[in-house]
Amino acid sequence: MEKKKQPVVTMGTSSILVIFIILCLVTFAMLSLASSKASLTYAEKIAGRTSDYYTACNQGEELLAEIQTALTEIPAEAPAQYYQDAYKALQHIEGVRAELPEPSQAPVISYQIPVNEDFILDCRLEVTFPRQLQDPLCRIISWKEVSVKDWKPDDSLNLLDPDGV
Predict the structure, then answer these.
(1) Residue (of 61, 65, 83, 66) closest to 74 by Cα position
(2) How confident is the model over 91-120, as a mean pLDDT?
(3) Cα→Cα distances 94→76, 78, 111, 115, 117, Å
């Protein structure tokens, strides 16, 4: 009688399959960990940048309140005289630059608040003549974040070598 031989491979196949599945799970876990670490770093960077921006906005609002306080002390009799008096009053506020295009035109106020080493908050206002008591004293022309660094394009990647073609 002949003995039937058992295949040797059947017992090792399930072990190899289990090892392969464990390796796949460990690989996916490492990829998830790396992705979540990158997301956390990016979220912290964005949170810091947003916090810096709103801190600068708060400083800008405080300066705007100081400007409006100075403008409320000026008597509003005639627009031309009001604009000249406003221009003189704004010269005494630190960090504020006032420009008077013509004596009969409204002064333009500008100031800049640093956000971080790369950006500033650039604010421009125009003084308005209050015809009634509840009228605004100035109008915001622009309130924007501006980069202070020069943009340099990254052209270091040479995709096509003209000498090699």
Answers:
(1) 83
(2) 90
(3) 24, 27, 10, 18, 21
